[in-house]
Amino acid sequence: MQTVIHAEKLSKHFGDFKAVSEISFNVQTGEIFGFLGANGAGKTTAMRMLCGLSIPTSGKASVAGFDVFKQTEQIKKNIGYMSQKFSLYEDLTVTENIRFFGGIYGLSNAELKEKSELLINQLGLQNETKKLVGALPLGWKQKLSFSVAVLHNPKIVFLDEPTGGVDPVTRRQFWDLIYEAAERGVTIFVTTHYMDEAEYCNRVSIMVDGKIEALDSPTGLKEQFNADSMNEVFFELARGAKRNGD
């Protein structure tokens, strides 16, 4: 297994506020790596550093073999990214969005035609291709957004709270798409505050107040904390962090 994301004491400060404080971890090829924590724990800030969108304050990190300080453009070319807020253009049609982002990713016309047809058939959007994306239900928007993020076969895809606001059935369908991508060798780095989604990951790190307080497989974490669910694990960590803070 090859390490495709490496972080060593990675930190991001905004003045005196430590949004991310000396986090260290590795992610392997094809792994579904969950980056969990409550809102404000530092998950999105950490992801932005790894995506080359924000320069760290200190530490070391590499993504797909490229340095997050010096090679941010190379990182961007080798990853897919789906932001917390819906990231496609709502005033363009389904087909227009696919073509637009495929062009940004450098796909040839032949590749774009082939991948567009495959994507539309996979999602069952054959009758929706000429509809404005803004008219689609949120669940369809999210699934389309993810599919576009992996259109160019990136080595790694970063997903920031991808299932926020969608119903449980759509959440499950979205994770089916994640599994399919992982089976193709795509590494998935996903942030979420839904603790039950940790069960879908190969390994999970849990952030509390900018620090990684635990990192293991879901089964390993539940055994470590003698818990029946990831929610219980998280609450134990949060209580422990609060006691230490006091």
UniProtKB/TrEMBL annotation:
This is ABC-type multidrug transport system, ATPase component. SMART domains: AAA. GO terms for molecular function: ATP binding; ATP hydrolysis activity. The keyword ATP-binding applies. Transmembrane segments: none annotated. The lineage of its organism: Bacteria, Pseudomonadati, Bacteroidota, Sphingobacteriia, Sphingobacteriales. InterPro entries: AAA+_ATPase, ABC_transporter-like_ATP-bd, P-loop_NTPase. Gene3D superfamilies: P-loop containing nucleotide triphosphate hydrolases.
